[in-house]
Design goal:
The structure holds two protein chains of two kinds.
Chain A: H1 14-26, E1 40-49, E2 52-58, H2 62-68, E3 75-76, E4 83-84, E5 97-100, E6 107-111, E7 121-124, H3 151-155, H4 162-174, E8 189-201, H5 205-217, E9 221-224, H6 234-237, E10 240-241, E11 244-245, H7 246-259, E12 263-266, E13 269-275, E14 279-284, E15 300-312, E16 316-318, E17 331-333, H8 334-342, E18 351-356, H9 362-370, E19 374-380, H10 390-396, E20 400-402, E21 404-411, E22 414-421, E23 428-432, E24 435-439, E25 442-444, E26 457-459, E27 464-466, E28 474-476, H11 486-503, E29 536-538, E30 543-544, H12 545-553, H13 559-566, H14 579-590, H15 594-597, H16 611-615, E31 627-628, H17 632-637, E32 641-645, E33 648-653, H18 662-675, E34 678-681, E35 687-691, H19 695-702, E36 714-721, E37 727-737, E38 740-744, H20 750-764, E39 771-774, E40 779-785, H21 789-794, E41 813-817, E42 823-827, E43 836-842, H22 846-857, E44 863-864, H23 867-876, E45 923-930, E46 942-945, E47 957-965, E48 970-978, E49 987-992, E50 997-1004, H24 1014-1017
Parallel strand pairs in A: 1-7, 8-9, 8-15, 9-12, 15-28, 17-24, 18-19, 18-24, 19-20, 31-33, 34-44
Antiparallel strand pairs in A: 1-2, 3-4, 5-6, 5-7, 10-11, 13-14, 14-15, 16-25, 21-22, 22-23, 26-27, 29-30, 32-33, 34-40, 35-38, 35-39, 36-37, 37-38, 40-43, 41-42, 42-43, 45-48, 45-50, 46-49, 47-48, 49-50
Helix pairs in contact in A: 5-7, 5-11, 8-9, 12-13, 12-14, 18-23
Chain B: E1 2-5, E2 9-12, E3 17-21, H1 37-49, E4 57-63, E5 71-77, E6 83-88, H2 94-101
The chains are: A alpha+beta, B alpha+beta.
GO molecular function, one term (chain B): sarcosine oxidase activity
Keywords (chain B): Oxidoreductase
InterPro entries (chain B): SoxD, SoxD_sf
């Protein structure tokens, strides 16, 4: 199931080995160690950083390659433009953000620590000018006193109009991160679902144990790991498990997991969200490790994983100590130093100093010494060497200093020396060093367990927050659960995996947990070393310890206020290395304990997610699904112009060669219908088959007018209200048999009306014998309109069909046989006001129908028409549509009040009778035509009494729909006008402030054309 | 969020549409049945507009429009989003039941 394979160093000949070593030297990787690491020295890779060519190896990250090349300065900070280096070796990196790639693929703020190296990689530093070494904006440091927390609010308050024009652009130029590409993203992003019993989040020792236990027990397991390789801290720390080297254990465990068909391993996949009902979101970086995705491959894939249980083994993040100069390039987390040495065979410094307040940090000293570099001093405020490290001190004769690091000296290229202060007697001494490894302790990764508003709880013994519970179905294990020794991680992970599998009903045996030392973890909390110079809490947002205490002095004591006032933890790293230090300093300043101070609310995403990945394939023309009418391809061949109507693409008009604009085409189509015959695809109308003994009663309840009294073979216009009395939808419904009606809705509301009808049937009137079937996609429906419509149709139907006024009168509805035998449904209804039919054929005949209408209609000059001509003709006839059925109008407003039956209950009947809905001064539908016949009427223009000043008090309504009427040779429109029906003939003022237009118009009947309806009865 | 449709099984919430409180019952008055118009209007007013906003378990209407088109009555905890139960509306799946009985 899984394509995962852990890279295993293959056997090499001594000569190969020598060649590689030579290649390394020539490639000037000055800080590359001879040891193996987990890089492939047979695959050297070229890359460039700020235009400088360098080399690394397969298996490197950009950060490890930079370390190996001796590069310390990689970035300038956000606000002060201070020189910054690489701080961590993982996804929590706050400082080493670079701009990856170029052109359309340029991507800002990429963590160098998670970017896999590939041949030809191009990266650039950001937020500097003209260069990283000589950044003129570093002058900001001189103005540091004014750039304190909240300085935007204090400094740039007035004059207010300067904010948008001057202050904000200036600040944005000075303070910022990288620049995103300004071209469309050329890559594709995918979205996918996965389902499992047990989701294991994090592939370190605890996660591997959990996955193995659950997998052996027989559960369907998904193990996600954000890194390229499984192993977590084992890759950096090594150790001994079950009597073997940690890497050997890792290989054998991976082999077993890969061999289990029920276990799926997903590396390069970061879990970033926890949602309701066991749904999780993860981002798979499919092609971030290559210059550009392979053909047909995606760049990233967004996974939604549904899991019955999850085990979060997301580890812990080492936290910095806040002291002056702690942001200089070369100050690095102690665990990161170990990772660069052990995993990447890259040495962050040749003379390393170690500053730690806990036992775990001491491991770095041992690993540095073993790698052949030199530990110049270990600074520990606890004054006593931890028991398990005493032998280390003796073996290497380590220089151990009791105290704290109180300052860091150096330049843009990083640390040159540190000042160590004995915090008892205040004595200081200087230690020369090129790399300061720092460990302030470990913060279990509680984020995922807190995404449902969980609050972590404080554990004094490890001076850290641990999960205080978890969302339903989730368990936490290993370091994420506060278990900070390797042995405990293996044990805890195994038992959590076994328990999750059992809860999912797995019957197999989970086997035994692997064993390793459960060494102690001593720590004396140290948050902040006070002193002169800036001591950084949040490296990415340049928030210092004094910003935190300033926030406290100004009253922003709550952690949520602290966060927003100082922007602590609000950068792309979301404070992974800074939040706890910030709140600890706030706790100290306010005299509260850390648990009293509390944490801010944890929210997804845990890691940055590109908008492209969230959009997936839903971009450009695929932003939403399309629906094509049955005659779409035929219409496209005729050169139709299409318009989006909801999801549908409808033919808007059919331009002919030589026509100068849309108006000319549309007017031609209208006149062709009015004088001859035309047809239009109206398949987009919603269609519902209503069947059952109570079908008529059912329709009586959902429409304001009666349908049970409709004769078989007849159609009737129906109007639906909402229960609050406002008009919901309209359409024609025909009775095809005693117990069978065919109902149509508007295009826009088709789905909603179906939902509403189902609600009425299933919830309100469950006793009625009626069934509903959506038939919108099953029927291709065409309107055939014009004086020659019958003649045209007669040529299409079987000669036995009588379409005369006697045989098939106005508002008739029945099945007809077409020549060739296809059974169609024919309706003698008219939206255009002409003699017209609508014909429904099974959707697969839609395109053929359009072609046949063209052939049969040729003698009559048949003209296909689009939605514009349809709209013109409905306005000429005063038929209401979407702009009038606008969610505020009643049946009476539309002039349809008389349709409301008084003899039956129907949806909306009672509420439609409310005082305000029957008030005499309501705005009702009328016709509007400018007094100047050459004037173009515009929809949205306001109606004001003649001679009045336009304003809220004089406003009497507005123009809802307009068109140019070719038969009247002028612009006309429908409008909603106060007491409109009493004012026919009145001249009003039309005021259009948006287009700066003001003119007069006459209120008239909404039926402009054939008011007696002679033509449609034909 | 996952919703266990009684007809289709557990499905993702994107397939469903939320309507709201399932408690209000549509008033049932015969036209010209002798009720005072005010009383009828008051009853409809309550039905259309008055809703409780519970923090806790609430009965709600959900529509499985992306599946079987059934209206469902779900008991959901509005604080935790946990579904306590999901049942079919009285008239949902009637055709299915009728066919099963044939």
């Amino acid at each position: 199931m899984s394509g995962y394979s852990q890279s295993e160093p293959l056997a090499r000949t001594a000569r190969e080995e020598a060649n590689i070593r030579t290649a390394v030297t020539s490639a000037s990787q000055s800080h590359r160690l001879p040891g193996d690491g987990m890089i492939d020295r047979r695959s050297p890779l070229r890359f460039s950083f700020d235009g400088k060519a360098m080399t690394g190896f397969a298996g490197d990250t950009l950060a490890s390659a930079l370390v190996a090349n001796g590069v310390k300065l990689v970035a300038r900070s956000f606000k002060y433009h201070r020189p910054r280096g690489i701080v961590t070796a993982g996804s929590e990196e706050p400082s080493a953000l670079v701009e990856m790639r170029t052109g359309a693929r340029r991507e800002p703020n990429t963590r160098a620590t998670t970017q896999e190296l590939y041949d030809g990689l191009i990266a650039n530093s950001q937020n500097r000018w003209p260069s990283l070494r000589h950044d003129l904006m570093s002058i900001n440091q001189l103005f540091a006193p004014i750039f304190v927390a909240g300085f935007y609010y204090k400094t740039f308050m007035w004059p207010a109009k300067f904010w948008e024009s001057i202050y904000e652009p200036m600040i944005r130029r000075a303070a910022g991160l990288g620049k995103s590409a300004e071209l469309p993203d050329p890559d594709h992003y995918d979205k996918a679902w996965a389902h499992c019993d047990v989701l294991v989040v994090g592939g370190g020792p605890a996660g591997l144990s959990a996955a193995l236990a659950a997998g052996r027990a027989g559960s369907r397991v998904i193990l996600v790991e954000e890194d390229t390789l499984l192993g977590g801290r084992l890759l950096g720390d090594g150790g001994e498990i079950d009597g073997m080297d940690a890497r050997e254990w890792l290989r054998s465990t991976t082999r077993e997991l890969v061999s289990l068909p029920n276990v799926r391993i997903m590396t390069r996949t970061a879990l970033f969200g926890v949602y309701d009902g066991g749904t999780y979101a993860a981002l798979e970086r499919v092609s971030d490790n290559v210059a550009m995705p392979d053909r047909h491959q995606v760049r990233q894939r967004l996974w939604r994983i549904v899991a019955r249980r999850s085990v979060v083994t997301a580890g812990a993040i080492e936290r910095p100590i806040v002291f002056p100069g702690n942001d200089r390039p070369g100050v690095m987390m102690a665990s990161a130093v170990r990772t660069y040495v052990n995993r990447f065979a890259a040495l962050p410094g040749k003379r390393v100093a170690l500053f730690t307040n806990n036992d775990d940090g001491w491991r770095t000293a041992e690993i540095i010494q073993r790698a052949g570099a030199h530990i110049v001093a270990v600074i520990d405020p606890r004054r006593e060497v931890p028991a398990q490290h005493r032998r280390l001190v003796d073996t290497y004769d380590l220089r151990v200093l009791a105290g704290v690091v109180s300052d860091v000296k150096g330049g843009v290229d990083g640390v040159r020396s540190i000042v160590v202060t004995n915090d008892r007697n205040g004595q200081t001494q200087r230690v020369e060093t090129d790399c300061l490894a720092v460990s302030g302790g470990w913060n279990p990764n509680v984020g995922l367990s807190c995404f449902h508003r969980g609050k972590p709880i404080w554990r004094e013994d490890i001076a850290a927050f641990v999960p205080g519970g978890a969302p339903k179905g989730m368990a936490t294990a290993g370091a994420a659960n506060g278990e900070l020794s390797l042995g405990a991680c293996l044990r805890d992970g195994h038992s959590a995996g076994a328990k999750a599998a059992a809860e999912c009903g797995a019957a197999g045996k989970p086997g035994e947990a692997s064993k390793a030392d459960e060494e102690g973890y001593g720590i004396a909390p140290l948050w902040h070393v006070k002193g002169k110079g800036k001591a950084f809490v949040d490296f990415q947002h340049d928030v210092t310890a004094s910003d935190v205490t300033l926030a406290q002095r100004e009253g922003f004591e709550s952690v949520e206020h602290l966060k927003r006032y100082t922007t602590l933890g609000m950068a792309t790293d979301q404070g992974k290395t800074s939040n706890i230090n910030g709140l600890a300093i706030m706790a100290e300043a306010t005299g509260r304990t850390i648990p009293e101070t509390g944490t801010t609310i944890y929210r997804p995403p845990y890691a940055p997610v590109a908008i492209g990945a969230i959009a997936g394939h839903h971009r450009d023309e695929n932003f939403h699904a399309w629906r094509l009418t049955p005659s779409h391809h035929w219409a496209a061949k005729q050169g139709a112009v299409f318009v989006d109507t909801g999801l549908w693409k409808r033919a808007q008009w059919y331009p002919l060669a030589g026509e100068k604009d849309w108006l000319e085409s549309v007017s031609r189509e209208v006149l062709a219908v009015r004088n001859g015959v035309g047809f239009c695809d109206v398949s987009t109308l919603g269609k519902v088959d209503v069947r059952g003994a109570d079908a008529g009663v059912f329709l009586d309840r959902v429409y304001i007018n009666a349908f049970s009294s409709l004769a078989v073979g007849k159609a009737r216009y129906g109007l639906m209200l909402r229960e609050d009395g406002i008009v919901y939808d309209d359409g024609t419904t025909s009775r095809l048999a005693e117990d069978h009606y065919f109902l149509t809705t508007t295009t826009a509301k088709a789905g909603l009306v179906m939902q509403h009808l189902e609600f009425c049937r299933q919830v309100l009137f469950p006793d009625l014998d009626v069934q509903l079937t959506s038939a919108t996609d099953q029927w291709a429906q065409f309107s055939i309109a014009g004086p020659n419509a019958r003649k045209l149709l007669q040529d299409l139907v079987d000669p036995s069909e009588d379409l005369t006024n006697e045989g098939f009168p106005f508002m008739g509805a029945r099945e007809v046989k077409l020549r060739g035998g296809v059974i169609a449904r024919l309706f003698r209804i008219s939206f255009s006001g002409e003699m017209a039919f609508e014909i429904s054929v099974p959707a697969r005949y839609g395109a053929a129908m359009a072609e046949n209408l063209m052939i049969a209609g040729k003698p009559y000059g048949v003209t296909p028409y689009g939605t514009e001509a349809l709209g013109v003709m409905r306005i000429e006839k005063g038929h209401v549509a979407g702009p009038e059925l606008n969610g505020t109008t009643t049946a009476d407003d539309l002039g349809l009040g008389k349709m409301m039956s008084k003899k039956k209950d129907f949806i909306g009947r009672v509420m439609a009778g409310r005082e305000a809905l029957i008030a005499p001064n309501r705005q009702v539908v009328v016709g509007v035509k400018p007094t100047d016949k050459a004037r173009r009427l515009r929809s949205g223009a306001h109606v004001v009494p003649k001679g009045e000043t336009p304003g809220p008090k004089t406003d009497q309504g507005y123009v809802t729909s307009v068109c140019f009427s070719p038969v009247l040779d002028q612009w006309i429109g429908l409008g909603l006008v106060e007491r409109g029906r009493e004012r026919i003939g009145e001249i009003v003022r039309i005021h259009d402030p948006l287009r700066s237009e003001d003119y007069e118009a006459e209120i008239c009947s909404p039926v402009f054309y054939d008011p007696e309806g002679v033509r449609q009865r034909g | 969020m996952r919703i266990a449709c009684p007809f289709c099984g557990e499905r993702e919430n994107g397939e469903f549409t939320y309507l709201g409180d399932a408690s209000p019952k549509r008033p049932n008055f015969a036209v010209d049945g002798g009720e005072s118009p005010e009383r009828v209007e008051d009853a409809f007013h309550d039905y259309v507009y008055l809703r409780d906003n519970l923090a806790g378990v609430m009965r709600e209407y959900w529509y499985h429009g992306g599946g079987c088109r059934s209206w469902l009555v779900a008991e959901r905890n509005t604080v935790t989003h946990e579904f306590v139960s999901v049942t079919a509306a009285p008239g949902a799946g009637a055709a299915l039941a009728a066919r099963a009985g044939e």
